[in-house]
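Problem 12. The chain below contains 277 residues. Write out its predicted structure in token notation.
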Amino acid sequence: MNRVIDDVIKESTDIFSIPEIYSLLRHKLQDPYASNAEIADIIKRDPGLSLTILKIVNSALYGFKSSISSVAQAVSIIGRLELSELVLSTVVVQKFNQLPIEKTSILQHWKHCFLCALIAKKLAKHCSLQELSESIFIAGLLHDIGKLIIYYKFPEQVKNASNPELFQSLQIEKDILGFNHAELGSELMKAWDLPLLLQSTTLWHHSPESAIEYTDACKIINVSNVLAHFDIMGEEVESVLNAETCWKTFNLDIDVLFEIHLYAIEELNETIGMFLK
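Solution.
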């Protein structure tokens, strides 16, 4: 680990520690004899989290035909792995949303990340990665988590470290801080012992060609990240996409990307509202 990154994380263990309820849930999920009711009981210790989880699983994000009325029912229907990932995304978003960061900046951050996540989930399904679509949604949601740490820890340097020019910030961050947001976010996930898919997609979301594990997922987060920087598709987007060649390995028509982006935009506000209340 980069020693500077290590210091950043260790200096703020209260802020950047894994949320306790997720740690308890993960421990219980490792017990092969744990029942759905026992798993649900952990989630129900946090009434706000329980309500958020039920709201999400009953939304268009999952698209179930019948209503899910209890956390235990959600466990049995969506499965333990997906529930774990859903809890992870929910508690991390809520935890980082409480950081003393300028509200406009943090809302803009989540708008980009939720749009990236929605695009990534749809793109994964389109590219026959249905079994990874939920994990890829989480990857899209958390891919820029390192930026929030930078906003919090280095407020004076943020204007320079977070250069508004698309895809220009990594080297600037490295020059100013000694690391970039992708490295920082990935190391935080490693410290939290999160799945390798999340570590890899976070580390390589700007350069998927360097990824060794989960290369397709890294490519999907890369192109989703590109698309999520735009509110409206047009010639400018097409020009940027043409410079990012990894998406072409999926044999996608650019019109398909534009259509996926449009559907994601339509779902964006509702999705943000579910997670951020």
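Discussion. The domain at 3-276 is CATH 1.10.3210.10 (Hypothetical protein af1432). Students who got a different answer should revisit the alignment rule from Section 12.3.
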